[in-house]
Fold this protein.
Amino acid sequence: MIAELLTDTALPIILVGAMVGIASSAVGTFLVLRGNSMLTDAISHSIVFGIVIVWLLTKQQSGPVQLIGAALTGLLTVLLTEALANTKRVKQDAAIGLVFPALFSIGVLLLNVYANDVHIDTHTVLLGEIGFVWLDTIDLFGLPIPQALVSMSIMTLLNYGFIGLFYKELKLATFDPALAKTFGFMPTILFYVLLMLTSSTAVAAFDAVGAVLFIAFAIVPASAAYLLTDRLWMMFIIGALISIASSISGYYLAVYFNVSIGGMMAVMTGVFLILAFLLGPRYGLATQLLKRRRDRQSPVEPPANL
Amino acid sequence: MQWLDLLSDYTFQNVVIGASLLGLISGPLGCFAVLRRQSLLGDAISHAALPGVCLSFIITGSRDMGSVIIGSLATGSLAALTMLLLTRKSRLKTDAALGICLSIFFAIGIVLLTYIQGTNNASQGGLEAFLFGQAAATLRSDLWVMGSITLVTLTLLAIFWKQAKLVTFDGQYARSLGMPVNAIEAALTAMVALAVVVGLQMVGVILMAAMIVAPAAAARQWSRHLGGMLVIAAGIGIVSGVSGATISTLSRGLATGPLVILTATAIVIISLALAPGRGLLWGFIKHYRQKEALQKQQLLYALYKHPSASQHYRTTFGVRRVLSQLKRQGYLIRSPDGGTGWALTSRGEKAAKQVVATFEEVVT
């Protein structure tokens, strides 16, 4: 029966979409909290460069070599950005805006040059092919499991493994880097490992959702969670739930309107963000308005001694 | 001969004029974006132009430049406003708001793009060129639209030059003078959106961000004045636009956007290294020279004060090099007793006395 479900196209696609969201919102949560969200933008663009280079060197389209290559490319992007900002000749934001378009451009040009040989074209770079994940399967326990699902599950395990192992260190490094440093937690190294995981997740998700939509999966559920809770562990749970809900609703809407599945899933994360922004229990716009109105109608009694 | 053919080629003329217009508008407006630390806002606005392009196509059914521009301007501005709303009314920071707007608007664009492809409209071809840019597809009529936008934008900038300058460098002072700071800031952001729109056809929505940042960042190295920076940025924008577009037209298979961006990036690297005053290379040379001068002075001082200690000087490569240099310049000789030490010549002694005098003056 399970085999039947997996050969159906809907379930694998939805599972892959949800896994992309869960894996990337795990690392995205820390980036949102640290104020480095735009690094996902930089990383997801520049891994195109990494993917093409690794392919040219090893002819491997996926697998561990690609993941390591991606991690290194992500690291390269961040290090280049920081080196550029450290020259004091350009500001941090301009440095990001200089580095990733350059790497992305080289990647796209190489794709143009080797267009006939590479499995990815510029179209895939942007859209991904989540609609076809069920075509590419490997047999596990006698079941045809989509390869994308396997790689995304591995990334989810890696990300949450890292977060689970270093939970308190990461938490302190995020909210009080100076204190974390005095405790010897090496916040900078933790941050770099986090960025390498982000890049690897981006590559694993690349075939499914492409370069740009990855940003949505990494940042938007985490941001929505940030609007809903003050607890770090709760952010992961909410982020994962929003990813799952976006994947399911995005899939059926996309099928109904006959549009890009990955794009629709990303749009749905945006819808959930807007809902959180408007209706969040504590920080939501509606809650704030209601509270203000209530306060105006029944002002707090001033203390008697005034 | 081939070049002459090329120059008289109709398409090529269009490409060159279009690329020049792009440089002319994105360079100067990029300067304001970079100086106001809004480089990445350009990125968000340019990604957000995609749904506008698709919407205008769905409504008008054609790839007409005028409607494309209105559409992308509308969604680009909407993205900028949404970003502002998210940062003002929620606890999200600027970076998260930027990332959200960029990715969600782009996702909407992708959804619309696939929707159009699903309807199998015959004239949809070329819509994907807006992703990476296709300079060769530029029409003469597109140029008129691009040209008028550039002209209007630059004229507006010239009229409100003083205000824009003050708001950029000292917003609080501008506010205290009673200037409508918010309106001017909004206008500057809207102008960035205009620059993005002009570049859509040339470099595409994804790389347009770099066209805002790169010429401005390069120009900043060459000039300390806003006016000079704007002119240089426009020049760099034109050069990278034209050369990128030329290579793309000649090679046929290569997308224009990446080529333009790589040319601009190369100019940035050259500017960072070589610009007079700020160039990193000059900085290294200066640092190196100062270090050497200081090392010489220290050696002269040491030899003058403790002549017998000179046996130990040969330990490091740097010291050995400075010693042989001083010898060549006639300040030092090998000590007459035939050992490994050094002694000051009369000229060296004079120089050393001077060093000692200045040093002791500094100390006291």
Q: What stands out?
A: Chain B has a mean pLDDT of 83. Chain B touches chain A through 60 residues (CB under 8 Å). The longest strand of chain B covers residues 332-334. Residues 114 and 120 of chain B are 10 Å apart (CA to CA).
